[in-house]
Design a protein that fits this description.
With 235 residues, this protein is of the alpha/beta class. Helices cover 49% and strands 14% of the residues. It contains 10 helices and 5 strands; from the N terminus they run ααβββαααβαβαααα. A 5-stranded mixed sheet has the order 3-2-1-4-5, sandwiched between helices. α5 packs across α6. 31% of the residues are buried.
Length: 235
């Protein structure tokens, strides 16, 4: 159901009771000090969008995988295309491979976003350039569901240089995949990028273990220190 129609219906009849109950049942995300990446359930996420402006652009597809006990769970992926009508841009077709026909056969945005919240649960969420994905989803959750999810997404682009430092850090996800000889079968597909990012996260978990870092809070502290040093050193 498109956002304006849902809002009009809620003004007349009140919120959908089933949707409201599902939202109420959502757990709060765990704090980083209580998260042990080597053992706990982690979610790695990627979005494909119409552009790079969270205020204007919209989500086209969502891909996510879980890691638990140091392994990617192949049995329960999240891979959804959002219904969009109208003429798809050349960028959408060439970069994401999402034709007007595929988008027209996609699912309504509201249930996709609700299902994603339940998929995330209280697990920490990781993404490469996570602030963008977080901003897109925060706006979509607020617009479509009237919901504000607490807690940040954790940026692999910031964590990777801290946990796997080098004199010449790779640029972008492609650079990190090449560094560790990870083969991404299809880039710019939400699920494929989420899976590739999860493989990178597994390597970072191993590197963190070798440095005696146990909690996600310790990862963040190290990344913060490394970033402050980099800022002092300048370009």
């Amino acid at each position: 159901m498109i956002a304006w129609l849902r809002q009009w219906r809620e003004r007349l009849h009140g919120p959908d009771p089933l949707l409201a109950a599902r939202l109420k049942a959502l757990p709060a995300p765990l704090p980083p000090a209580d998260i042990y990446p080597q053992n706990d359930r982690l979610v790695v996420l990627d979005l494909e969008t119409t552009g790079l402006n969270p205020r204007r652009d919209r989500i086209l597809s969502v891909g996510a995988v879980t890691i638990e006990g140091g392994q990617i769970d192949l049995a329960r992926p999240f891979n959804r295309i959002v219904h969009r009508t109208g003429r798809a841009s050349l960028r959408t077709i060439l970069v994401h491979g999402l034709s007007p026909g595929r988008l027209a056969r996609g699912e309504a945005e509201t249930p996709v976003l609700m299902d994603l919240l339940e998929y995330l649960g209280d697990s920490p969420v990781f993404a490469f350039h996570a602030p963008f994905d977080h901003a897109m989803l925060r706006r979509a959750w607020r617009r479509e569901l009237g919901y504000r999810r607490a807690g940040p997404f954790h940026d692999l682009a910031a964590l990777a240089p801290a946990l796997a430092p080098s004199a010449d850090p790779p640029k972008g996800l492609d650079g990190w995949l090449a560094r560790f000889e990870l083969d991404a079968e299809q880039r710019h597909d939400a699920y494929a990028d989420a899976f590739a990012s999860a493989e990178l996260l597994l390597i970072l978990i191993s590197r963190a273990k070798g440095q005696g870092l146990k909690t996600l809070a310790e990862w963040q502290s190290l990344a913060g220190r490394r970033q402050r040093i980099a800022n002092l050193q300048g370009p």
